[in-house]
Every structure is written in C-alpha cells, then in structure tokens.
Write a structure and sequence with these properties.
The protein is built from 9 helices and no strands. With 266 residues, it is an all-alpha fold. Helix 3 runs antiparallel to helix 4, helix 4 runs antiparallel to helix 9 and helix 8 runs antiparallel to helix 9.
C-alpha cells in the first residue's frame, strides 16, 4: 500500500513543480513583453492619435455599461442594508452611510474593474490576437516597427488615464440608484438616506478608490495585450486567449485588492 501512495505523492509534487515553473516562465515572458511595450514611440503624433482613439473605444464606450450596472447595484445595496439593519438600536441614516462606504471602498474600483476585465480585457485580447493570427503583427515587424509599443502602449495609457472617469461615474450613479430606491419606495425616507450619504464623510475614500483603479486598469490592459500578442494558431486560440486574459486579470485584481487595501487603509 505504500508504493501507490508514494507514487501518487511524487506525481502530485511533479505537477506542482511544473505548474510553478510554467508560471515563472510566463511571468518572465510578460516582463520582457512589457519592456518592449514601454519604449519610446517612433512617431509621437501617431501615438497621441491612437491614444485618443483608444480612449474613445475602451473608455467612453464603457460608460453606458458602468452607469447601468452601478444604478442597479446601488439600489440593491440600499435594499439589502435596510433589510439587515432594521433595528431600533441602529439609526436609519446608517443605510445611506453604509451604502456610500461600500460603493466608495469596494464596488467603484474592485468590482467595477472585475466587470471591465470581461468587457475591455476580452476586447483587447481578441483584437490583438486576431492581428497576430492574420499576420498583421508580423507585417509590422518586417517594416521595422516595434509592434508591441505601437499596438499596446496606446491601449495601456488610454485605459489608465480614463479609468478615474469611470470610477467617478460609478460612484455617482450607484448613489443615485440608492436615492431612487429611497424616493420611489417607502423603505427609507429620502432625507435620512441623504443625511447618511453626508454623515462622517472621508475624502480619502474617494482617492483610495481612484488610486486602486489605476493599478487595476494597468493589469487589465497589459495582461489582455500579453495574451493576445502571444496567440499561436487560429480563431480557436484567439478565443482561448480572451478567456485566459479575463481569468488571469480577475485573479490579479483580487490579489492586488488585498495588498492595496492593506497598504492604503492602515
């Protein structure tokens, strides 16, 4: 009985070692890729033009999704907070206060970026992956163009620059969703909810959400570009690259959420 157990343990150890080795290799390729990305553009005018176009495509086009999701999430948070804090010992305005803090501290940055990882990340990975499998990137390399910098740097810069706008939209519309619940229902009065939004407000919570969003936006854009750039094969591999980009970005966002929360809210 000891032999099968020993073999199984060795096989499990071998798999763990291979997974760790593959992870380190992928991280090394990512670092080398980002070194190519963050190089001086050949033509600054073209770089700024592409950056503005990416702001429109990745940022402005995401505003409707952000607004719709934020309104409903703000409404749901308000309803749930009222249900779970209905006690004579808890003041009624605490519903607005708790809704505000949940939106500012977590939803407007971490949860929002998890949603955007699916929308923006898959868009970037599929676009660059399609260019790879159709040999457009190879054509750029033949012409002497740094394809990584030309294609990826405008996307990273554009999304990082525009993410604070999406965060502010998310904060505002989520609170409007909570106010809509207070206005159209009798769950809580609008005056008490508004007072809760204003009570014990800390400006640092807004900056905290914006600072975290910079890191998350960089993760989404760079990881999705990495997976799309290194696609090998055909259309099926492009789909797999998009899936891997979304999954990896989501895991990294959750990991950095814990680290940044520990660093910024000590």
């Amino acid at each position: 009985m000891l032999v099968p157990v020993t073999r199984k343990a060795k096989h499990r150890k071998k798999n763990c070692t291979m997974a760790l080795t593959n992870s380190i290799a992928v991280f090394g390729r990512y670092c080398m890729f980002m070194r190519k990305v963050f190089s001086l553009p050949d033509k600054w005018r073209l770089f700024f033009k592409r950056t503005v176009a990416e702001i429109s495509k990745l940022g402005v086009d995401s505003i409707p999704l952000v607004v719709i999701v934020s309104i409903f999430i703000g409404a749901v948070i308000t309803i749930q907070m009222e249900i779970n804090t209905s006690s004579p010992l808890i003041p009624a305005y605490s519903v607005g206060l708790a809704t505000r803090d949940i939106v500012l501290l977590e939803f407007s940055n971490s949860i929002l970026c998890l949603i955007l990882a699916g929308k923006v990340g898959s868009n970037i990975a599929s676009e660059i992956g399609t260019m790879r499998v159709t040999e457009q990137i190879d054509a750029l390399e033949i012409m002497g163009v740094n394809s990584a910098c030309f294609l990826v740097l405008p996307k990273v810069v554009a999304f990082v620059l525009f993410i604070p706008v999406l965060v502010i939209f998310c904060m505002g519309t989520a609170m409007l969703g909570g106010m809509a619940v207070a206005y159209f229902t009798d769950i809580i009065s609008i005056s008490k909810f508004t007072y809760g939004l204003q009570a014990m407000f800390s400006e640092w919570y807004v900056w905290y959400g914006i600072i975290k969003s910079f890191f998350f936006a960089y993760i989404i854009a760079s990881v999705a570009s990495f997976f799309g750039y290194h696609v090998k094969g055909g259309a099926l591999e492009v789909g797999k690259a998009s899936t891997n980009a979304v999954v990896t970005s989501s895991i990294l966002i959750l990991l950095f959420d814990v680290l940044l929360t520990k660093m910024l809210l000590q």
